[in-house]
Write a structure and sequence with these properties.
The two termini are 52 Å apart. The chain has 21 helices and 23 strands. The longest helix has 30 residues, at 588-617. 42% of the residues are buried. The protein is 41% helix and 18% strand.
Length: 619
């Protein structure tokens, strides 16, 4: 009988139409500030005066690539001075910091954006005022010639994640009325800041300011700044983290011109405004905000845009100097192999060695960001215990690595190398961004090994301890039924009666022996080789070597719950469940002993599982 779908209730409708809290907050800002009538549309460039003063859009881009939009976020407008930080970053990357810093300062001017004044060295105060921005365009023109503007436009498109066009009418209007900028250009030429043809340089600058963007574009561009130069939508590294850090520094001190001090005091987010009505704000490692509303205050900043930024910062306490990260939360678990060994089932000789030397393998599972303070805390925590032979740092929950953290990691690893301690990294792929950041400082160290899976890393370290203390791990060794833990306590006659019921099977590497979901028809005793027991999703439950049994849960459950695959050539004794049950009936005392052994084996597994849970949930 076909079942009817569940009824649609008010709760169901509310759930499907619900909005994330951050989007609801942006809607509230839009509603609260839409009626704001203060300010005036810029008209010193006649074409800008044609903007619709009612337009208002807010967009916020997260570093995982999600973009929130409220209002007129797809209305195009010219980027104007918001182009300055991106062109400055581009110049730093293209020409090098030494070349750029030789002619452009980094100090706030305290003057309006179009001030015709240079610093004591007759250089622009910074790249956020017109003089500095024109100097930046001049540097790129000197390097790229006639291709300078296309080079800039394409770069800004990579910041936005799409190709950007130009408003030719605004460009023409700006060029026709740009005498103040021409005065700045010739002042720069007089002081050898610009060495090229001034009209050609100013043409690049005027076109650069006339590039068309939307509030959504500026949010993505700001998020790229906040994400160390990586566009969160395209994942392209647009410029280097070095250039981003310097650009954000100048935005912090000078991005809002003669309002910059008040801005950083009250809002605390690096930002840049443009007389076209846009404001972008980049909160490092958090988000990018873009807004558009053409009416400006006396400083040339969007009135509504300022209010949105102030509200966002105040409501969520986003001031960049008000951080509360606690390094003590960077370690989620810290243990040795006595508390949490690998999933490999060890033979008695190996177990004995590892039981004596369990403190020689230390495992520290990390979470969050590998920052300077977090790495320092981990290093001190490690030094507070006995010296291990091997220390495993599991990084699968690490979300980011700062350059300062990576450098301190390298220095800590160097000290461990001098003390004879081998470092093992797990949970990190060699193709990842975090690996690139760490390896920049650690690739010359010889005491580092890496395995993607934590269990593999622990197993390798255990093997080294076994070898170091005289043990051996012989995968080709052959064991007999009497050596099986599941059959411990059976006498010679009982073992002799069981042997005829067994069939010797041989498996090639990667050959499947048991499939999850299949009928449990046989019990296996591993005679030689190695097998892996894994869940269908690939999670490894155990690694078994010669002398171990598998498929024993078939004595309790009719269906297989895991896959068993030969890791290398393996041979087994296979006995059907029916034959094994008949053997237990014929030998009641042996059957009782086997079930007692099975209970002990399952209890040991449960103890290990509980120990792992305790490690992860302990304070």
């Amino acid at each position: 009988m076909k079942q009817s779908p569940p009824p649609v209730t008010a709760s169901t409708v509310n759930w499907t139409s619900s909005q994330p809290p951050l989007l609801r907050f942006l809607h509230t800002c839009y509603a609260d500030f839409l009626a704001e009538a203060a300010g005036a549309v810029a008209d010193y460039i006649p074409e800008l005066g044609k903007a619709n003063p009612a337009h208002f859009g807010i967009s916020l881009a997260t570093l995982d690539g999600h973009v929130y939009e409220v209002g007129d976020t797809r209305v195009p407008f010219t980027i104007q001075s918001m182009s300055k930080p991106f062109v400055f970053a581009l110049a730093l990357d293209t020409l090098g910091a030494e070349r750029v810093e030789s002619v452009i300062g980094v100090e706030p001017s305290g003057d309006p954006f179009n001030s015709i004044r240079l610093n004591a060295d007759n250089h622009p105060f910074n790249a956020m005022v017109n003089a500095g921005a024109i100097a930046c365009s001049g540097l790129l023109h000197a390097d790229k010639g006639d291709g300078a503007f296309d080079f800039i436009r394409q770069a800004l498109g990579r910041f936005a994640g799409r190709a950007l066009g130009v408003d030719e009418a605004v460009y023409a209007s700006e060029s026709a009325t740009g005498d103040r900028n021409r005065a700045i250009g010739y002042l720069l030429r007089t002081n050898s800041v610009i060495t090229d043809n001034v009209p050609a340089v100013l043409d690049v600058y005027f076109r650069q300011c006339a590039i068309l963007v939307t509030a959504r574009d500026t949010a993505v561009m700001a998020a790229t700044l906040a994400n160390r130069g990586i566009n969160p939508l395209t994942e392209e590294q647009v410029v280097t983290p070095y250039a981003i850090a310097r650009t954000l520094s100048v935005m912090t001190s000078s991005g809002m011109y003669d309002y910059a001090g008040e801005w950083i005091y009250r809002v605390g987010i690096p930002a840049k405004s443009g007389v076209g009505g846009g404001i972008l704000a980049a909160l490092p490692a958090r988000l990018g905000l873009g807004s558009y509303s053409p009416k400006l205050d006396k400083h040339g900043n969007s009135v509504r845009g300022i209010k949105v930024c102030e509200a966002l910062s105040s409501h969520y306490d986003l001031h960049m100097l008000n951080r509360s990260d606690d390094a003590r939360h960077s370690i989620i678990a810290d243990y040795n192999i006595g508390k949490n060994p690998s999933r490999r089932v060890r033979r008695p000789q190996e177990q004995e060695i590892l039981a004596k030397h369990f403190q020689e393998v230390r495992v520290i599972e990390l979470v969050g960001t590998l920052s300077l303070s977090n790495v320092d805390y981990v290093a001190r925590r490690l030094g507070g215990g006995p010296r291990p032979e091997f220390v495993i740092f599991d990084l699968r929950r690490v979300t980011a690595t700062t350059r300062a953290g990576a450098r301190l990691v390298a220095e800590a690893f160097q000290e461990l190398a001098e003390l004879g301690v081998t470092v093992i990294l797990s949970g990190i792929k060699r193709t990842s961004r975090e690996w690139a950041t760490i390896s920049e400082w650690t690739n010359r160290l010889g005491n580092i090994r890496d395995f993607y899976l934590l269990d593999t890393a622990i197993e390798w370290a255990e093997d080294q301890i076994v070898y170091r203390y005289g043990g051996s791990i012989d995968f080709l060794e052959t064991t007999e039924l009497a050596e099986q833990p599941l059959l411990a306590g059976l006498n010679e006659q009982e073992i002799a009666d069981l042997i005829p019921l067994c069939t010797v099977r041989t498996y090639q590497p990667n050959e499947q022996i048991i499939a999850a979901g299949s009928e449990a028809t046989s019990l296996f005793f591993l005679r030689s080789g190695v097998v892996h027991v894994t869940l269908p999703d690939g999670i490894r439950l155990a690694t078994l070597t010669a002398g171990m049994a598998f498929g024993e849960m078939g004595l309790l459950e009719p269906k297989r719950i895991a896959d068993v695959v030969a890791d290398m050539s393996a041979t087994t004794y296979e006995v059907t469940i029916k034959d094994f049950e008949r053997f237990r009936e014929q030998h009641p005392s042996a059957g009782e002993r086997i079930m007692r052994n099975l209970a002990e084996i399952l209890a040991d597994r449960l103890i290990l599982a509980n120990a792992k849970i305790d490690l992860l949930t302990s304070g």
